[in-house]
Amino acid sequence: MELLSPAGNLTALRAAVDNGADTVYIGFRDATNARHFPGLNFTPQQAAKGVEYAHARGARVAVAINSYVQAGGWAQWREAVDGAARIGADAVILADLGLLDYAAQHHPELARHLSVQASATTPEALNFYQRRYGVTRAVLPRVLSIQQVAALAEETDVELEVFGFGSLCVMAEGRCLLSSYATGESPNTVGACSPAWAVQWQETERGREVHLGGILIDRFAPEEPAGYPTICKGRYEVEGRIEHAFESPTSLETAELLPQLQRAGVQAIKIEGRQRSPAYVGTVTRIWRQLLDDLTAAGDEAGAHRPDPARIAELREFCEGSTTTLGPYERKWQ
Ligand code: SF4
Predict the structure, then answer these.
(1) Residue of 143, 169, 190 with the most ligand 1 atoms within 8 Å of its CB, for mutation
(2) Helix and strand element counts for the chain (H, E)
(3) For ligand 1, atom 8, which residue shows the shortest CA distance?
(4) Ligand 1 — pocket residues by CB below 6 A?
(5) How far apart are CA 28 and CA 99, in angstroms?
């Protein structure tokens, strides 16, 4: 399986390549990129340098132009696709139908990957994108069980890419209304579910409270660790109980599922986190490179390989709140 690592700047891209990423995915520094974080991402010149660095070392670069084209914004999004082709990127990651069509018509040599933002979860949808726009790979939303992934692989020739590590998002990606409800901004265009301006921390007698857009989304005891707040991972009172009602603030960590993902027909494992530091990207990429190489060396046809516990322990030090989940891959209700 191929390993895809995130990069929010050139240093992170180099760290990913140097530590064994097969492909690094990046985005331009504008709204064409659904991870449009302030201070991160690539100018066309930086992206060109990144492609040069990766290609010189046998790695590939995919450019995520994965937000939906805004009214009046066609020229900007089209230019992003043209720009990715100009710098010699290996693939573009797209969700918008108009952009997929444009890329297929004008840059047929540039591989087209379907973004997770398109939320395609059926063979019919995947095969349509392949037939109509020549999509060769799709990133699956983080809502499918491993059985559902395997069933999809049986009914499509589109390569399947899944998230293997990092933060979880439980909604139809790119269409979440939770954060829009709280902030009035779309995570599709501002690049974050909790834009910094909307987050407010307050020390109170009841604990440290965090608000998003004025809405209380969590309260922490004095010594309790508190990560960056996301509305879907807040604690709410539901029928008298206070709990993580939507999703818990833990990291997706699927190392132990690797043999099963391979047997299910998954072609690529994606590491989440273009907002993460170069040190994080480098270390997490190195560990995942080792896990995948171990799996290949084991020649495991039966799916019986067990990843090295020492590698998993090292990986878990990089998880949110040091807690992990297999997420939807193993949810019973699926
Ligand atoms: S608020 Fe949560 S569910 Fe909504 S887009 Fe962000 S991470 Fe996903």
Answers:
(1) 169
(2) 11, 15
(3) 169
(4) 169-171, 176, 178-179, 187, 193, 230-232
(5) 15
CB 35 within 8 A of CB 301: no
The helix or strand, by DSSP H or E, that contains position 222, with its residue range, turns out to be none
pLDDT digits 0-9 by tens, 67-105: 999 899 999 999 999 999 999 999 999 999 999 999 999
Long-range contacts of 286-294 (CB under 8 A, 24+ apart): 286/19, 286/20, 287/311, 287/314, 287/315, 288/3, 288/5, 288/20, 288/164, 288/165, 288/255, 288/315, 289/3, 289/19, 289/20, 289/21, 291/255, 291/258, 291/315, 292/1, 292/3, 292/258
Main-chain phi, psi angles of 236, to 5 degrees = -130, 155
User: What is the 8-class DSSP label of residue 11?
Assistant: H
The residues, ordered by sequence, that sit 6+ positions from 237 with a Cβ below 8 Å of its Cβ are none
Cβ–Cβ under 8 Å, residues 199 and 190: no
* 216 CB-near residues (< 8 Å, 6+ apart): 209, 210
Which residues share a beta bridge with 324? Answer: 251
Token match 């390989």: residue? Answer: 305
Helix (H) or strand (E) holding 33: none
Domains and CATH numbers, the chain: 2-168+250-330 (3.20.20.70), 178-243 (no CATH)
Question: In the predicted model, is pLDDT for residue 302 greater than 70?
Answer: no
Residue closest via CA to ligand 1's atom 6 equals 193
pLDDT of residue 171: 64
Confirm if 246 and 237 have CB atoms less than 8 A apart: no
Per-residue pLDDT of 53-77, as tens digits, reads 999 999 999 999 999 998 999 999 9
For 299, counting Cβ atoms within 10 Å of its Cβ (0-12 exposed, 13-18 middle, 19+ buried), the class is exposed
| Cα 305 from Cα 162, distance rounded (Å) | 20
Tokens of 66: 């994965």
Residue identifier of the C-alpha nearest atom 7 of ligand 1: 169
